[in-house]
Amino acid sequence: MEKYRAWSDSGGDLSSRFTDDFVLTQASLYWFTGTISTSFRPYYEYARGLTRRVEKVEVPTAVAVFPADLTRPPRSWAERTYNITRYTSMPRGGHFAAHEEPELLADDITEFFRQLR
Q1: Disulfide check for 8: which of 26, 27, 94, 106 has CB 3.0–4.6 Å away?
Q2: What CA–CA distance (Å, rounded) separates 15 from 13?
Q3: What is the spatial distance between Cα 94 and Cα 4, in angstroms, rounded to a whole number?
Q4: What is the pLDDT of residues 57-102, one digit of tens each?
Q5: 32 pLDDT band (50/70/90 cuts)?
Q6: How far is Cα 74 from Cα 100, in angstroms, rounded to an integer?
Q7: Closest CA to 1 of 48, 19, 107, 113
Q8: pLDDT tens-digit profile of 41-60?
């Protein structure tokens, strides 16, 4: 629950973004399947230098920046590594954007692929 509260655009009120059923389901899935550690693995590996840095990604890339996410990379920083063809600063949302703001995210993904036609 703490991560959902801290990493979402909830203003500290978890129930403003997530139902009790959703939070309990998420916690249950991790607890009963013993998979919480795998969700933290990428963060652990990056912090320990176990993951090699990506030098350059040439494929068209979209970045959607949500104001309450853990990181909010400026476009200039993202362009150092990625071929940014779409960069969107979202008006709301956090780390769990697909659940918090599904319409905003879906519309942005749709527009990204539309420009690649």
Answers
A1: 94
A2: 6
A3: 9
A4: 999 999 999 999 998 999 999 999 999 999 999 999 999 999 999 9
A5: very high
A6: 22
A7: 19
A8: 888 898 898 988 888 999 99
Look up the pTM and report it: 0.83
Q: List the structure tokens of 87.
A: 């960069």
What are 63's two structure tokens? 């970045």
Q: Is the dihedral of CA 1, 97, 64, 93 positive or negative?
A: negative
DSSP assignments along 83-107, one per residue: EEEEEEE-SS-BTTHHHHSHHHHHH
Task: Give the pLDDT confidence score for residue 40 in this predicted structure.
Answer: 85
Neighbours of 39 (CB within 10 A): 10
* CA–CA distance, 21 with 40 (Å, rounded to integer): 23
* Cα dihedral 47→52→53→56 (10° resolution): -160
State the DSSP string of 61-87.
EEEEE-TBSS----HHHHTTTEEEEEE
